[in-house]
């Protein structure tokens, strides 16, 4: 069964960093890119960036450049997204999604990141 | 950067009615790399349509996508109770890659 399994809820103070994981199973990991999307409470979907799971190359949305890093571990079929210098408006549900011939056919279940003092 | 606009913001319809949702891009979307998603509260988005008109695996044929260039449409032929949700369009395939979303259209029960 093809799935993306994300890590659990994270709570951080403003200024801290968070790392969210997304583990793939049921398919060949390196055949598909992974991108990240976030959704603040009651808001729409916002694209964060994308990583090539084969070569590790990344492209980030301009809004997040300098604060976000995406990496992958091909030994565990896992992608990581780290967001630094967290602010309260970074509080959101973060999703990973698979990209192949179609842009998001499989999604993770989402990870809530709560930034609060 | 391509900006997507969706209309209407909210569409109030009854089960059995036809829903027509619009997505307009600020620039031409190359190769019709436009997708549509459905999202219900507390759930991840679900891919409905990609390449402007291709249905994703398992999507009922009451969902159809059309359009090209800058104007795209998602049509739900006869609304079922489970179709009341928020719908997002997304552009992809640009260089460098961007996967921007529109602001969404909420389809609610009249």
Q: β content of chain B, as a range?
A: over 45%
Largest sheet geometry of chain A: 6 strands, mixed
Helix content of chain B: under 10%
Major sheet details of chain B:
6 strands, mixed
Global Rg of chain B: 13 Å
The SS-based structural class of chain B is mainly beta
Percent range for helical residues of chain A?
under 10%
Number of strands of chain A: 10
Could you report the average pLDDT of chain B, rounded to the nearest whole number? 96
Total beta strands of chain B: 10
What would you say this structure looks like, in words?
The complex is a heterodimer of chains A (117) and B (110). Chain A is 0% helix and 48% strand. Chain A has 117 residues and is mainly beta. Chain A has a six-stranded mixed beta sheet, with no helix packed on it. In chain A, a hairpin with a 4-residue loop joins strand 7 (68-73) and strand 8. Chain B is globular, with a radius of gyration of 13 Å. Chain B is built from no helices and ten strands. Chain B has strands spanning 4-7, 10-13, 19-25, 34-39, 46-50, 54-55, 63-68, 71-76, 86-91, 105-109. Chain A binds chain B through residues 35, 37, 44-47, 50, 59, 61-62, 95, 97, 99, 101-105, 107-110, and chain B through 1, 33, 35, 37, 39, 44-47, 50-51, 54, 56-57, 88, 90, 92-93, 96-104.
């Amino acid at each position: 069964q093809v799935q993306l399994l994300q890590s659990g809820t994270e709570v951080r103070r403003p200024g801290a960093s968070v790392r969210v994981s997304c583990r793939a199973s049921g398919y060949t990991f390196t055949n598909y890119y992974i991108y990240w999307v976030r959704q603040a409470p009651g808001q729409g979907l916002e694209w964060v960036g994308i990583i090539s799971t084969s070569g590790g190359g990344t492209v980030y949305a301009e809004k997040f450049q300098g604060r976000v890093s995406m990496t992958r571990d091909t030994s565990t079929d896992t992608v990581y997204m780290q967001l630094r210098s967290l602010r309260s408006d970074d509080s959101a549900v973060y999703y990973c999604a698979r990209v192949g011939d179609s842009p998001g056919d499989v999604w993770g279940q989402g990870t809530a990141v709560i930034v609060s003092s | 950067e391509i900006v997507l606009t969706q209309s209407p913001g909210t569409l109030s319809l009854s089960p059995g009615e036809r829903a027509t949702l619009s997505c307009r891009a600020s620039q031409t979307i190359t190769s019709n790399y436009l997708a549509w998603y459905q999202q219900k509260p507390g759930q991840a988005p679900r891919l409905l349509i990609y390449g402007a008109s291709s249905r994703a695996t398992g999507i009922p044929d009451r969902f159809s996508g059309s359009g090209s260039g800058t104007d795209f449409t998602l049509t739900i032929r006869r609304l079922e109770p489970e179709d009341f949700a928020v719908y997002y369009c997304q552009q992809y395939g640009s260089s460098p890659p961007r996967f921007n979303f529109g602001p969404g259209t909420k389809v609610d029960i009249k």
